[in-house]
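Field guide to reading this record: the first block holds the primary sequence, the second block holds the structure written as discrete tokens, and the final block holds curator observations. Each block starts with its own label. This record concerns Glutathione import ATP-binding protein GsiA, catalogued under organism Pseudoroseicyclus tamaricis.

BLOCK 1 — SEQUENCE
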Amino acid sequence: MLDVEDLRIRFGTLEAVRGASFAIAEGESFGLVGESGSGKSTILRALAGLNRDWDGTVRLAGEPLGRLRDRAFFRRVQMVFQDPYGSLHPRQTIDRILAEPLIVHGFGDIDARICRALEEVSLPAAMRFRYPHQLSGGQRQRVAIARALISEPEVLLLDEPTSALDVSVQAEVLNLLTDLRRARGLTYLMVGHNLAVVTHLCERIAVMSHGEIVETVTAEDLRQGRVQHPHTVELRALSL
Ligand code: ADP
Ligand code: MG
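BLOCK 2 — STRUCTURE
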């Protein structure tokens, strides 16, 4: 579903991503872990079209993504950020926030789609008339997930989607993401630093260090300690 080959991203003289390659099957949930600054968010931002200055090949269901913005591609690939407050416009009601992608991508039945989207993330319909600051952190992340899903994408890019939440709310949001993936047959690419969280959601995990993928393992391999690279061993000792 998503093929990334030799992705390279520079910021001036810094090589933030140094030839990352991975392929994610349809319906698969793939994780990227690694220390802070290893290039995880940079990869997601490039795939979400937020940074158009990269080299390499990216294919969605076999179709190559050009470096220019392609509206169809970016409807099919949506992103959820770590901090749902930062990513929701503070002066827009939830209604407006959810209507915007529908308008941009030319969907009809906006009202019905907004109601369905809120229901899908288990928020009451009356929430649509509130502003982001009137919601809890977990509710805001549910709105961000609803907004990402409302244009019916195939791939969801998740950048530490539960890191900013309380532990009890983290589990709820992870369970919601698991259910949504099953119900919709979505493909996930999730970034995280907490291995327990990433192995909960992801079937395969690539370990990054200094802009490179040093090892790709299954969640089960990680849990059982069947890992090779010293960096993976260390990461596992720190967070599992
Ligand atoms: P991670 O998400 O793994 O913590 P990032 O992808 O955010 O890491 O960052 C990777 C590296 O690229 C870091 O050294 C960071 O400082 C740098 N970086 C990220 N975004 C930019 C930017 N817009 N301009 C310059 N440097 C950046
Ligand atoms: Mg990051």
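BLOCK 3 — OBSERVATIONS
Residues 11, 14, 16, 34, 36-42 surround adenosine-5'-diphosphate (ligand 1) (CB under 6 Å).
The chain has a mean pLDDT of 93.
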